[in-house]
Amino acid sequence: MAKMRWSESCIPTLKEDPREAEIPSHKLMLRAGLIKKLTSGVYTFLPTGFKVLKRIENIIREEMDDAGCQEVLMPILHPEEIYEESGRLKSFGPELFKLQDGRKRTFALGPTHEEVITLVARDEMRSYRDLPQCLYQILTKFRDEIRPRYGVMRAREFIMKDAYSFHVSDESLDVTYRRLEKAYCRIIERCGLDFRVVEAESGYIGGNESHEFMVLADNGEDRILSCDCGYAVNLERATASEKDEKRGAPGTGAFKEVETPDQKTVGDVASFLGVTSREIVKTLLYRSGEKNIALLIPGDREVNGIKLVRILDDPEIRFLEPGEIKEFTGGPVGFSGPVGLPAGTSIYADNLIGSFDSMIVGANKEDMHLRDVVAGRDFEIAMSGDFTMAREGDLCPKCASKMNKSNGIEVGHIFKLGTKYSSAMKATFLDDKGKSHPFIMGCYGFGVSRMVAAAIEQHHDEDGIIWNPAIAPFDVILLPLNTNDAEVMKVAEEIESGLHERGLSVLTDDRSLSPGVKFKDSELIGIPLRVTIGKKLKDGKVELFQRATRQVDDIPVGDVLEKILEFAGD
Prior knowledge:
The protein is about 25% helix and about 30% strand. Strands 4, 8, 9, 10, 11, 12, 13, 22 and 25 form a nine-stranded mixed beta sheet that branches. Strands 1-29-28-30-31-32 form a six-stranded mixed beta sheet, with helices on both faces.
């Protein structure tokens, strides 16, 4: 193991937060010299940051290998035809990086590798005897993020571990799925992070079951609902569920029109009529395929667009434009309702609409609403479903307790793909009777570069990063305060050599700078243990500082190696 001296290393620390950085991990990765920006969403990992990446990668490899997976390396450059074959070219949309070769053939820079690995299975796994198999890689991926931000958290180029499994049955897939779920938990636990496994939407990857692995962090982009019983779910996936309480007034008589001049929002209408938003129902109008549809949701809720697309199986569904609403309903935006819509209009309703005795809705006339409207009497619902965004306080589907909201950073996502890709790409195997079947597949992604940022988001303070020893760039930093003092440097070199012999990685700050600068830089880059060799050396002691706890101990020089090994072991 080579000795590392700061004076000979590329660790360009900064005193101030860069103006471009918004969240702690982005600020600290730039300030601590872990990364350097090339262009929007594209970063160079400098030596210290790269060391963290490699340690995370090593943990991932160990756990994936222990789970029975085999490492491969697939191409980054993908011919466009494979996305046409899988039917995923359109769903990727503008996020897919495209380029042309000299013969005008179109290629994509790999965002994921479902298509590539399916081709491998199609050609190389022909019999049930070849299954199950799980193949993985750690590779740079590319997605043309419209709004790259937060440093490597949402980048256009990033490092990901992706794995793919192939099976003869759903039961076989479930065994591997649960094994990889446990492996992911061990990876994050070994990195020293607090996390939740949550039910999730599958998105453009596809599949009928998926789970995300969320590192808890105040600045996480994802919202999680969780319960003390252990259940957790991504807010996009969560079911909106309330206590069985009725909404609206009892529907005792026919509905009646009420004037609501220029009251277009739920809040405006509620205030004007002296009611709460819980008594109002919003009517949202969409175009799906060749028809218009109406969606009813409670006035105090918001529609979940992801659920809407999934339930209606229409990724191109869109809101009606104001002119279209006027033509369709006869009224302007803000006054739409389910009563009197054109014949044949499909009216969908969120499940919570069933809790309304009666409701206030738009009258499809300017400055007019209807009171005491009753579903089933005044209009018919074609289908009910879970269309709204869940929120804190909604009921846990497992135990019916109220759920709490927290923020998380998605570092892993696993999917049961089923036959989505194998059927589309005609990737089949022969069973024991010689009959052909499409492979049943699983997919397992883990964000390696994002994990670096997630670790910093969860573990930092006002002075800098606090690395868990398992992923720290170095185990120990040595600070000889006076590099011109021969005795100080002699002791530093002896400790350095002793630590190297015992397999620990050491950074020696041999720069001729003030102690204050050295202390600040050491805390900024967050190495778990710091040994300061300074004035106390005249008493035969050095100072041992633990970054996470800020505990300081004066240790006899002769005992320092033993103490460091003791702390490192802990």
